[in-house]
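Table 4 source record.
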Amino acid sequence: MTNEEKKKIMNEMKTINKNNNHNAYILCVSSKSNDNIDNLQNLLERESQDIISKGLESHKYTIKVLVIGPAGVGKSSLTDRIINDTFTMDPLSTLGVSLKKIKVDLNNHSSINYQYIDSGGQEKYRSIWNAYLIYADIIIFVNDDKRIKAYTNFVEDKILLSEKKIICCINKMDLISDAEKNKVLKEYKLENDELKAQPIFLVSDKSKEGIKELTKKINEYSINIIDKKIDSSKKTDNRIELKNERKYISNNKLKKKKKCC
């Protein structure tokens, strides 16, 4: 086809496009000579990403974080520190199950509703635990240096087979010396052999020690979970990341990663 013929066809197509109020892209391509194929591929990629972005605009994701551990290890205080960056010297004991929520905005007007569930020790009842486990996305085991054994003896098999994201915390590290921390960490791994491969954080809800690292891991796991929820069968390059890794609450926004180069 000559250039004049291409030009004539393009003009005709543009006229049809305009008269019918269409907003179509018009390209002359050739699979044989590879003419304009690169431009067609770029156009398809750009439009596909735009469709994906628009699909996220009104979506509301829910991430459920189950916080379990012995009584008195500071589960509620740790949750308050993560969510509100606050600490109470004499917090009330949690009776039964406690639910705390925080909404996090994503780009394109989407949002994540985080639900932090403090079990209040109810995981020792197998029937209740099963209900928690089904719906939880992330499980946080909280202990301190006095109660080093994690609550896994009743549900060990289901935890390891559940494919849930697991995080371990040893709280109240402000009460022990730096020299003792390695000893506590070593003892924790020995007492909880089934969890030694999971991330373990030495934290303090009072002094904020380790909180930044802990929230960063929660962020990382949450992003991975959301990515899978966006499309469990097709991996896209529209990954979601935090604008601020320090915390993921309050006014922090989340944005999508752009494909590099």
